Amino acid sequence: MGVLSAIVLGVVQGVTEFLPISSDGHLALAYHALGMKPDLTFEVFLHFATLIAMLIYFRADVVALARSAVSWRPDNADERRALVRIAGVTVVSAVVALTISPIVEPASDSIPWIGAGFLVTAALLATGETMARKRELTVEPSALSAAPVALIGVLQGLAALPGVSRSGSTISAGMFAGLAREKAARFSFLCGIPIIALAAAKDGLDLLSGSASLPGLPQSVAGFAAAAVAGYIAIAGLLGLVKRHGLWVFAAYTGLLGAGMLVFAAFAQKG
């Protein structure tokens, strides 16, 4: 892998981790376009980079949540309740992601699998937008009941599959539960911090244990920097976008992309 390829992959990861269009699916496509096999070890650095971008952007929220865990004052009760729900989402997500982990890597190298994942993302985004227009979205993240917390967790776990967007799935699930679009997006990002941290830590342990090989330093640094900068910009862009517009454009994009990939795979198989 060259430095330029590492930068391209970093930008793809940073942008698509936060836009509801699936980072894993787009990374897999980027690998195909560059004529490379997926490098899960290199992606450790990309995951850490997007984690850093999230922690910097949401530093005030993270500090407030952390304080609520150690200071049981009445004025931070909402943050404490939100933290409990984030923890619930994380536990469910981890169980689901570990359960499906044996099929994730083969799926990342399969155009039909990736295409199907994009179609799932499109369906979730479209359903979330449709449901949002039919009901009053007044629920607060701290008031979510066990059922929507479990649903958000399941969908976040399934987003380990390529083409299934983590942010798109969890934003849609939040809207199903009655969160306004902006609150659903913000809660989605906060739920993403622990699960991305766990995934990055697991991969980091694999590196330290010697079960995975370390990528080249220039490539790793270049990919990390590109993913962190692109990720920070993407977070700000999406939160600004959801204030003014819906998610239909992302539903249309992932739907067309998924359908196109399935058609391409069908013709390629015939040929």
In short:
The chain has helices at 3-18, 23-34, 42-57, 59-70, 77-108, 111-134, 146-158, 166-176, 181-209, 217-244, 248-270.
Describe this structure in words.
Helix content is 80%, strand content 0%. It is an all-alpha fold and 271 residues long. It is globular and about 60 Å long. It has 11 helices and no strands. The longest helix has 32 residues, at 77-108.
The percentage of residues in β strands lies in under 5%
Arithmetic mean pLDDT: 86
Structural class by sheet pairing and helices: mainly alpha
Distance from first to last alpha carbon: 30 Å
SSE series: HHHHHHHHHHH
How many DSSP E strands?
0
Computed CA radius of gyration, to the nearest angstrom: 18 Å
* Shape, principal axes of CA atoms: globular
Estimate the helix proportion, in percent.
over 70%
Low-confidence stretches: none
What's the main sheet like?
Answer: none
Number of helices: 11
Give the helices and strands, then pairings.
Blueprint: H1 3-18, H2 23-34, H3 42-57, H4 59-70, H5 77-108, H6 111-134, H7 146-158, H8 166-176, H9 181-209, H10 217-244, H11 248-270
Helix pairs in contact: 1-2, 1-3, 1-10, 3-9, 3-10, 4-5, 5-7, 5-9, 6-8, 6-11, 7-8, 8-9, 9-10
